Amino acid sequence: MDFLFRDDDVSYFTKPEELQDAWGWYFNQKEAKLNLAVIPFVSPVEFSKTGASEEAIGKNALLVGYLKEKIKEKKVEIILHGYSHASCGKRFEFESNNPKELSDKIKKAKAYLEELFGVKITSFVPPHNAISAAGLKEISRNNLNLLSAVPLNPSKVGFSFKKHSAYFKRLIFSIRHRKLLKGKFIHPNLQVLHNMQYLDCFNFLPELFTPQELFNIVKCVEQKKGIFCLSVHYWQLNESAREKLEETFELIQSLKGARFCFASEIFKARA
Ligand SMILES: [Zn+2]
Q1: How far is the CA of 44 from the centre of ligand 1 (A)?
Q2: Which residues of 78-113 are buried (b: 16+ CB within 10 A; e: fewer)?
Q3: What CA–CA distance (Å, rounded) separates 180 from 216?
Q4: CA–centroid distance, residue 47 to ligand 1 (Å)
Q5: Domains in the chain: how many in total?
């Protein structure tokens, strides 16, 4: 079974030590692969910091050096996580319905990260897992796949057979397994929308799910021949949360054929 770890919100403000504290144990594993959702030009306001209106991640030389090393070791894949992560009023960044604005942001952000880290970026995580119809279309137009927990609610992303079908499949699966999921939602399989592939992610909620309960969800997804992506924030990994994550990892590792993947591998494999 293919399994992904996704970590969000890495930006100019991230210290390498924070990532090392959160993931050092994982990087020591033989086949560890971590999908890092990176904000290229972070908005300080969004993260209760002070500074210029946008802070480019390239200005944090220590972090860039650390990430380049992890990329070289094939431990980290860079995923695009919005442009600045800034919300506008009640709308999150990629809930905008202005296609040009979103397309310009994706192009600039993607080119910047690709140049900075010497990589090719093929996946996108929308800030706050929130996206509009225009956002979906522009991500696809810019040849990115989607790694997110987007409900694809027709009232937000517009009506189409494929989007509707994905929305209702997610709803039906989650209602059927509501006890196991404790009311949370997930779609176990890879989907195709526009020209992109989309994998639903499950948030790491250590206060709600024990490692065994989370593992039971993974096994349920496995039975559906699905792929499981666990979405984590490095800043939530205090000692207790980290221990639970390690325990979850060990349980998943015990599954026959468990494989920890980069997003590009699962999307490419099924393209
Ligand atoms: Zn985020």
Answers
A1: 13
A2: bbbbbbbbbbeeeebbbbbeeeeebbebbeebbebb
A3: 8
A4: 10
A5: 1
Chain center to CA of 8: 6
**CA separation for the pair 135, 102 (Å, rounded):** 7
What is the domain-level CATH number for residue 113?
A: 3.20.110.20
Longest pairwise C-alpha distance within the chain:
49
What pLDDT score does 89 carry? 81
Higher pLDDT pick, 88 / 263:
263
3-state secondary structure of 143: coil
Mean pLDDT, rounded, for 229-241:
96
- Cα 83 to ligand 1 centroid, rounded to whole Å: 11
Sign of CA dihedral 13, 15, 21, 25: positive
Structure tokens at 188: 């176990």
pTM: 0.94
Give 77's strand partners.
35
CA of 124 to the centre of ligand 1 (A): 11
Structure tokens belonging to residue 249: 């990892």
For β-strands 41-42 and 55-56, DSSP reports them as antiparallel
Per the structure, the complete domain to which residue 10 belongs is given by 2-269
Give residue-wise pLDDT tens across range 180-192.
Answer: 999 999 999 998 8
